[in-house]
Amino acid sequence: GAVVSQHPSRVICKSGTSVKIECRSLDFQATTMFWYRQFPKQSLMLMATSNEGSKATYEQGVEKDKFLINHASLTLSTLTVTSAHPEDSSFYICSARGSLAALETQYFGPGTRLLVL
Amino acid sequence: AQSVTQPDIHITVSEGASLELRCNYSYGATPYLFWYVQSPGQGLQLLLKYFSGDTLVQGIKGFEAEFKRSQSSFNLRKPSVHWSDAAEYFCAVVTSGTYKYIFGTGTRLKVLA
Prior knowledge:
The structure holds 2 protein chains of 2 kinds.
Chain A: E1 4-7, E2 10-13, E3 19-25, E4 32-38, E5 44-51, E6 57-58, E7 67-73, E8 76-81, E9 90-97, E10 106-108, E11 112-116
Parallel strand pairs in A: 2-11
Antiparallel strand pairs in A: 1-3, 3-8, 4-5, 4-9, 5-6, 7-8, 9-10, 9-11
Chain B: E1 3-5, E2 10-14, E3 19-21, E4 24-26, E5 32-38, E6 45-50, E7 56-58, E8 64-68, E9 73-78, E10 87-94, E11 101-103, E12 107-112
Parallel strand pairs in B: 2-12
Antiparallel strand pairs in B: 1-4, 3-9, 5-6, 5-10, 7-8, 8-9, 10-11, 10-12
């Protein structure tokens, strides 16, 4: 099946700094990428949807100025957590879809664990 | 609002035993239903999906799931569990007209040797 990678797999940063997480589709072109956040023992919560070349659409309650999403190419989307604080510590997962069809299978990355000290 | 419930947070079974993971959804129409498995260090992997047609769906790794509209359920089953099946399992629904996944809280499966 299709492969989606994320980098880094885990990152520790100081409070107030910014962290960038990359999501790449390795063997297909991803017209749409999604970013999720997963708290321990909780479900994946959709943060935002990004289409290549356009602005991301954020879910209600997600601060777009804090979680900057860029989808500059068909194989790469980035999530930047700006001025990170300990409450931003979480597991961030991206997924990618290869077409505009609503039910096209999404392929998930392995996730990035962020710890903000 | 649409929602997905996985009543069991943890399940432990012996290797070779049968398995059923429960999933209930709340949605006014027929949803599109998925089961994913998440192993440490790996992305969520699609086990199976239901869109329409036969309510018994076969997936990978010997898993199957049955859609029961009357019970708003989509339970995942496997007749004989292998130690490698130990992982976290997520049920998800995508409502028609959108592409957004709504995930359940997951069930962590432990397999005893």
